[in-house]
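BUG: 3D viewer hangs when loading the predicted structure for this chain

Environment: internal workstation, default settings.
Expected: structure renders.
Actual: progress bar stalls at 90%.

Input used:
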Amino acid sequence: MVGFRDTAVLCQLIHNFVHDIFQVRLEVAVLFFATDRLQSLGKECEELLHAVAL
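Structure tokens produced before the viewer hung:
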């Protein structure tokens, strides 16, 4: 028979695993968003520099 403590430990391990996966996915999503924003900002700066140079 599985004891309550064993079940609680297993549930905690599963919870930690799922939490870690979502944390990594969130961090990756934030990195992709930040990269996209930086690329957009770089393009805007480049266009501004070209406009000023003219």
